[in-house]
Specification:
By secondary structure, the protein is α+β, with helices and mostly antiparallel strands. 41% of the residues lie in helices and 24% in strands. This is Flagellar basal body-associated FliL family protein.
Length: 179
């Protein structure tokens, strides 16, 4: 009778252990998701603040104040021979000078997503396909020529500007410039 009771108790313990083990393994955390893996392969490269003249009628009518940063492929950034930030600034200036980007009279009609996509496409064409994954617009403001002159003359009032895009907050992590 004692042996049968011992064997029954043993079978119950083994069964409970097997059920516990299978539940534990079934609810084990999955590996990193595709989005987390992609994010880990990207690096933030901060853009420099740049001033882009707006040309109209053969004259400068105002200035865009811009700071655009990029989420870039870490491996491709390491392979760059030139400083990445300066290369991006040059490309942005080439892309945007003289380009009628925004109708200042109707700023609400500005298509931010199309603007980001154009920058991404042009930058990837120059730097290499897949280099730029995401375009982050930290600042995009417009200052008229008259307002800039008043501010340069030492006016006490703050410089009047039109915010074209509300800037995105970008983490202040030091980024490698590819060196």
């Amino acid at each position: 009778m004692g042996k049968i009771l011992g064997i029954g108790l043993w079978v119950c313990i083994v069964t409970l252990g097997a059920v516990y083990g299978s539940i534990y393994l079934a609810t084990a955390p999955a590996g990193p998701s595709e989005e987390e893996t992609k994010k880990a392969a990207l690096e933030l490269v901060r853009g420099e603040p740049i001033t882009i003249p707006v040309l109209g009628g053969g004259d400068v009518s105002g200035y865009f104040l811009a700071r655009i940063s990029f989420m870039m492929d870490k491996e491709k950034v390491k392979g760059q021979a030139l400083p990445t930030t300066e290369l991006m600034t040059d490309q942005l200036f080439t892309l945007l000078v003289g380009n009628k980007m925004v109708d200042i009279a109707n700023v609400s009609s500005f298509d931010v997503n199309a603007f980001r996509e154009k920058i991404k496409t042009e930058m990837n064409t120059r730097l290499g396909e897949g280099m730029i994954d995401q375009v982050l617009i930290e600042q995009l403001d417009y200052v008229s020529k008259e307002s800039a002159r008043k501010a340069a003359a030492g006016g006490s009032a703050p410089m009047e500007k039109t915010t074209v895009v509300e800037g995105e907050q970008v983490e202040e992590k030091p980024a490698s410039s590819g060196h």
